Amino acid sequence: MNEHAHISANLSKNQLLVMDALTNSDGPLSAYAILDQLCDQGFRAPQQVYRALKKLVDFNMVHRLESLNAFVACRHPGREDHETLAFMICENCGQVSEFTDNLLSKRLQHLTGAAHFVLNKMTIEFRGICINCHST
């Protein structure tokens, strides 16, 4: 059993519902959008969503997009390289693509190390226009 399958088996009902909402979403969702979607499932307060999101982020199953104040399901579950994540966010359609790049990660670690800064995690967000929107 892989790590994510093991973690999924141990998620609370609320965490599973939030994970399902993000997995089935066409794009990033704010905590309040998740709350709106799950009000029929017993969610009444934003704190319920935020608690579930915190655990899902801790388990590397969900990522927070800082510039959008929104969350997306991890598109590469089970990978060990979550210390450096990059996202391409289309400013037209809202599509989010997640990727990692070892060369970029090593370069950024070198830069921060040269500044005597101990790096724990990086999230990089590129904003622009995706190929689908650009070609129309």
Architecture overview:
41% of the residues lie in helices and 19% in strands. The protein has two domains: 71 residues, Arc Repressor Mutant, subunit A (Orthogonal Bundle); 51 residues, Dna Ligase, domain 1 (2-Layer Sandwich). The chain has 136 residues and is α+β, with helices and mostly antiparallel strands. The radius of gyration is 16 Å and the shape is globular. A hairpin with a 5-residue loop joins β3 and β4. A three-stranded mixed β-sheet has the order 4-3-5, with no helix packed on it. A two-stranded antiparallel sheet has the order 1-2.
What characteristics describe this protein?
136 residues; alpha+beta; Arc Repressor Mutant, subunit A; Dna Ligase, domain 1; 2 domains; 3-stranded mixed sheet; two-stranded antiparallel ribbon; 6 helices
Draw up the topology in text.
Blueprint: H1 3-9, H2 13-23, H3 31-38, H4 46-58, E1 62-65, E2 70-73, E3 84-90, E4 96-99, H5 102-114, E5 122-128, H6 131-134
Parallel strand pairs: 3-5
Antiparallel strand pairs: 1-2, 3-4
Helix pairs in contact: 2-4, 3-4
